[in-house]
Amino acid sequence: MSIKIDSDKCIGCFRCMSVCPGNLIYKNREGKAYIKYEKDCWGCTACVKECKNNAINYYLGADLGGNGAYLYTTQNKEELKWHINKDGKEVLINTNRKESNKY
Ligand code: SF4
Ligand code: SF4
């Protein structure tokens, strides 16, 4: 499993960089975030939860249903919404932002 960062959506806030426990996210010449060693990502989802621009897709491993399935988050003041996509279909799971680190 790993993440992919959409540079068209990335606004260069670098919240993702500051929360990655493995220091895997860097800034490119255009001022956008990118992941240098995708294979080193262990899928903690910290960056996914932190990105407020839906720029980070988290690709699920085969052990979790994988096969192109991915998720990203959106949020408002109260909720963190997990958008889970597979085969063109999306499932939405709402969680309380204050409790988002439990998941
Ligand atoms: S948190 Fe999202 S918008 Fe901000 S730098 Fe990272 S990918 Fe870009
Ligand atoms: S999922 Fe976790 S380990 Fe992987 S890049 Fe994001 S913050 Fe770093």
TrEMBL record:
Top EC class for this record: oxidoreductase
Organism name: Clostridium algifaecis
Classification via PANTHER family: ADENYLYLSULFATE REDUCTASE, BETA SUBUNIT, L-ASPARTATE SEMIALDEHYDE SULFURTRANSFERASE IRON-SULFUR SUBUNIT
E.C. number: 1.8.99.2
Residues in 4Fe-4S ferredoxin-type domain copies: 1-30, 31-61
A Pfam family annotated for this UniProt entry: Fer4_7
InterPro entries in UniProt: 4Fe4S_Fe-S-bd, 4Fe4S_Fe_S_CS, Fe-S_Ferredoxin
The protein's name in its UniProt record: Adenylylsulfate reductase subunit B
Domain of life: Bacteria
Keywords: 4Fe-4S, Electron transport, Iron, Iron-sulfur, Metal-binding, Oxidoreductase, Repeat, Transport
PROSITE patterns the record matches: 4FE4S_FER_1, 4FE4S_FER_2
Annotated TM spans: none
GO molecular function, one term: adenylyl-sulfate reductase activity
